[in-house]
Amino acid sequence: MGLLLLSWQIASLFLPEYMVPGIQLIAAEFVKMAQEGTLFWDTLLTLYRILQGVIGGFVAGALLGILMGTARRTEDYVMPAVNFIMGIPALSWTLIVILWFKGTEARIFALMLAVSFPVFAHSILDAIKGISTELMEMTLAFRPTKSQVLRMLIVPSIIPHVLTAWKVTIGFAVRVVIVAELVGASTGVGYRMLQQQSLLNMSGVLAWTLVLVATGLAMQSLISTTENRLLKWRPGKS
Amino acid sequence: MVKIGCRNLGKFFRIGRDTFEAVRDLNFEVNEGELVSVVGKTGCGKSTLLGILLGLQKPTNGVVTIDRREPYNDFDYFRGKLSAVFQTDRLLPWRTTLENAKYGLEILKVHKKEQLQKARYWLDKLGLLGFEGAYPHELSGGMRQRVGIARAFSVDPEILLCDEAFGHLDEVTANRLRADFLNLVRETKKTALFITHDIEEAMELGDRVLVLGKPAHLLMDIRLTKGLKDSPSGLKDLKGRIIQAIESDEPAVETRA
After folding, report:
1. Interface touch B94/A139, C-beta < 8 Å
2. By C-alpha distance, which of B20, B74, B79, B29 is closest to B191?
3. At residue B44, does pLDDT exceed 90?
4. What is the pTM of this model?
5. Rounded CA gap, B25 and B12, in Å?
6. A238 falls in which pLDDT band (50, 70, 90)?
7. Cα distance from A188 to chain B (closest Cα, Å)?
8. pLDDT, tens digit (0-9, with 9 covering 90-100), for B53-64
9. What angle (nearest 5°) sits at the alpha carbon of residue B216, between those of residues B211 and B222?
10. Cα–Cα distance between A140 and A154 in angstroms, integer?
11. Which helix (H) or strand (E) holds B113?
12. What is the mean pLDDT of residues B208-220?
């Protein structure tokens, strides 16, 4: 990491500023962004858009996954539709939601929902299918209600898979939300990046990129922390 | 009083295009408070019988009743009345010893305080106090099976069903656990069915031994009197006859020793 920074700084001495700006310029950009308030508010807005969309996708995906995993035959009908939607590229969705919906927030929410729910539906269905029949029989011997089976056996069994799906989806969502903000928003990290690019301000583009990377990493580490807490029963974890 | 009745029971499975017969015209009765072993070759349909008794599988022919009700059709009637100890411990890996022991009590919505008290009582009976907070992967195989037994007893069921409960353990551990388990069953005066492929185990646990052929049908129905249980030569002779019956797979004359 240190070596990377050093070589960057050396390169900045020889290459023009619009290609490789010096670290001090990027730092100055951060100060400017903080003073303008964009650093805080636009980052927060982008974060909010990601979370709102992915949580929506999670709820929709979880409901579908549980439906397909527990009600007989629904998988045959629902899964082809889910797969079809999953096959639509995120970029196509970006264009589709612009035509379908009015207002930046509605468009971005619809986009995030469309790209994230199939991942959750798939992973939760697989997780439910993977629930041990032995544990299911053991549980049924006590005659639980359906909600008890869901709460006491199904949900705890699928938590590890759900967390993995979250990790994958969050990383994906960061990339998609930026494209959406580039194309169709006047706020958010993606829009700020576009602004800086049109001013040929490389330091600004890089500063916002760093914000994105940091946001992504922060969310990943939040999920990892949750994982460690929820899955402390796993062998090798303590 | 008849607790478990099994009349003309038959069970077929369809595997692809083939049908597999697991149980064929099986008849027996178990009275309340009886300890009955069911012994037969591996793969003779013993576990299928367990599934039917638990109400998890539907008989193809005939009928199984417990308290004159069918476990499959009258599923919810058996809430809290049946417990099973399985071949593997079947503990929930995300639950500690204590949480696993009270699993059945939680399902029965017993008061929280009572859940803990009963679970602790049975963990104590099985020598597991001090391990309440351990996760299954931190316990030995024998201890895990003890937790499974505590879970089965904690709901105070009317009937205990055991399927090769000691088959996975080393001999020393299995012998101790078997003896402890038998004491608890006798102490609580439960009706119990022990399914096993081990003839000696069947003779030790049961006051009666049902010998099954393959597919599961009754070959012998033997009552073990106290006198017989204490006579090594008598048991040895009986074991020989059971082996012979299973090998020839022909119904033998009912014996009363």
Report:
1. no
2. B29
3. no
4. 0.84
5. 11
6. very low
7. 41
8. 999 999 999 999
9. 15
10. 12
11. helix B112-125
12. 90
B196 backbone dihedrals φ, ψ, rounded to 5°: -155, 160
CA distance B213 to B249: 5
Q: DSSP character for B76?
A: G
Instruction: Quote the CA–CA distance of A30 and A21 in Å, as a whole number.
Output: 13
Interface test with A, best of B90, B105, B118, B137 (most A CBs within 10 A): B90
Q: Which of B54, B135, B137 lies closest to A141 in CB terms?
A: B54
Question: Which ipTM was obtained for this model?
Answer: 0.90
Which amino acid belongs to residue A80?
P
Structure confidence by residue, pLDDT tens digits, A73-115: 899 999 999 999 999 999 899 999 999 999 999 999 999 999 9
| Local confidence band at B249 (pLDDT 50, 70, 90 cut-offs) | confident
DSSP H or E stretch at residue A18: none
First to last CA, chain B: 23
Mutating which of A131, A139, A143 best tests the B interface, going by the most B Cβ atoms within 10 A?
A: A143
- Contacts for B133 with CB less than 8 Å, ≥ 6 apart: B96, B97, B98
Instruction: Determine how many CB atoms are found less than 10 A away from the CB of residue B79.
Output: 15
Query: Tokens 């399985």 appear where?
Result: B86
Measured distance CA(B88)–CA(A169) in Å, rounded: 36
Which is nearest to B213 in space by CA: B14, B7, B27?
A: B27
Chain B neighbors of A140, CB-CB under 8 A: 54, 56
Cβ–Cβ gap B88/A148 under 8 Å: no
Q: Which residues contact B219 (CB under 8 A, 6 or more apart)?
A: B211, B212, B213, B245, B246, B249, B250, B251, B252
Q: Pick the residue from chain B with its C-alpha nearest to A144.
A: B107
Angle between helices A155-184 and A90-100 (to 10 degrees): 70
Query: What's the pLDDT at B174?
Result: 92
- Report d(CA B213, CA B44) in Å as an integer: 7
For every residue of B31-74, DSSP letters joined together read ETT-EEEEE--TTSSHHHHHHHHTTSS--SEEEEEETTB-TTTT
Query: Pseudo-torsion of CA B194, B199, B200, B203, nearest 10°?
Result: 50
